[in-house]
TrEMBL record:
Keywords: ATP-binding, Ligase, Nucleotide-binding, Purine biosynthesis. This is Phosphoribosylaminoimidazole-succinocarboxamide synthase. Belongs to the SAICAR synthetase family. InterPro entries: SAICAR_synt/ADE2_N, SAICAR_synt_PurC, SAICAR_synth, SAICAR_synthetase, SAICAR_synthetase_CS. Pathway: Purine metabolism; IMP biosynthesis via de novo pathway; 5-amino-1-(5-phospho-D-ribosyl)imidazole-4-carboxamide from 5-amino-1-(5-phospho-D-ribosyl)imidazole-4-carboxylate: step 1/2. Its EC number is 6.3.2.6. PROSITE patterns: SAICAR_SYNTHETASE_1, SAICAR_SYNTHETASE_2. GO terms for molecular function: ATP binding; phosphoribosylaminoimidazolesuccinocarboxamide synthase activity. It catalyses: 5-amino-1-(5-phospho-D-ribosyl)imidazole-4-carboxylate + L-aspartate + ATP = (2S)-2-[5-amino-1-(5-phospho-beta-D-ribosyl)imidazole-4-carboxamido]succinate + ADP + phosphate + 2 H(+). GO terms for biological process: 'de novo' IMP biosynthetic process; cobalamin biosynthetic process.
Length: 228
């Protein structure tokens, strides 16, 4: 029995406080308004997420990652998820262009952290601390998530720079484990991050599908090959 099925993943219960996170080959954009399937996408996202979770664990970030259960499946800790998405932006792109008077590709002087309410029916609106508290998330919890997100940003930015990749922005999700600890969850993949080639500025992420920039699998494979 599934605990949850989203646009890109299924979550399947195990015992001992673990679940399997199965990555699907489905791709969606514009809140599900654009859909397609790409053979091998689930495998790539699972493998890339596993690689990046291991990297973060090695650098002191507690994540829900436990191991790989199959080509497109990860074993992860079962968490009580927060209804928030924490977005970190290093470069102006996507929706940020609509909110700040900067051109796409402008390097920000410092990272911008944004909060979104994870709710498809409302198109995942951007919220602030007051909204988050109304949703039952304390200010201390929000600040801890933001601090973890900024540490993740420092680790990943340096890592990707060495691979000739710009970490433009990314989305993180968090949950609370049985011990009451806030833990990094969900995935870190080309579905949830913007990656640009450092020289060409070509997208190596879901924007390839979102804006018809080329072949999605080729972009994801290029990213995977650089990481491995």
């Amino acid at each position: 029995m599934e605990i949850y099925e989203g646009k890109a993943k299924k979550v399947i219960p195990l015992d001992d406080g673990k679940v399997i996170m199965e990555f699907k080959d489905d791709a969606t954009a514009f809140n599900g308004g654009k859909k397609a399937q790409f053979k091998g996408k689930g495998w790539l996202n699972a493998q890339i997420s596993a690689k990046l979770f291991r990297l973060l664990e090695e650098n002191g970030i507690k994540t829900h990652f436990i191991g790989i259960a199959g080509e497109n499946k990860l074993i992860v800790e079962h968490l009580k998820m927060y209804p928030l998405e924490v977005v970190v932006r290093n470069v102006v792109a996507g929706s940020l262009k609509k909110r700040l008077p900067f051109n796409e590709g402008t390097q920000l002087k410092e990272p911008i952290v944004e909060l979104y309410y994870k709710e498809d029916a409302l198109s995942d609106p951007m919220i602030n601390y007051y909204h988050a508290r109304a949703l039952g998330v304390s200010e201390a919890e929000i600040k801890e998530m933001e601090n973890i997100a900024l540490k993740v940003n420092e680790i990943l930015k340096e890592y990707f720079e060495k691979k000739g990749i710009i970490l433009v922005d990314f989305k993180l999700e968090f949950g609370k484990n049985a011990n009451g600890e806030i833990v990094l969850a969900d995935e870190i993949s080309p579905d949830t991050c913007r990656f640009w080639d450092a020289e060409t500025k070509e997208s190596l992420d879901k924007d390839v599908f979102r804006f018809n920039k080329g072949d999605l699998i080729s972009a994801y494979e290029e990213l995977y090959n650089r990481l491995t």
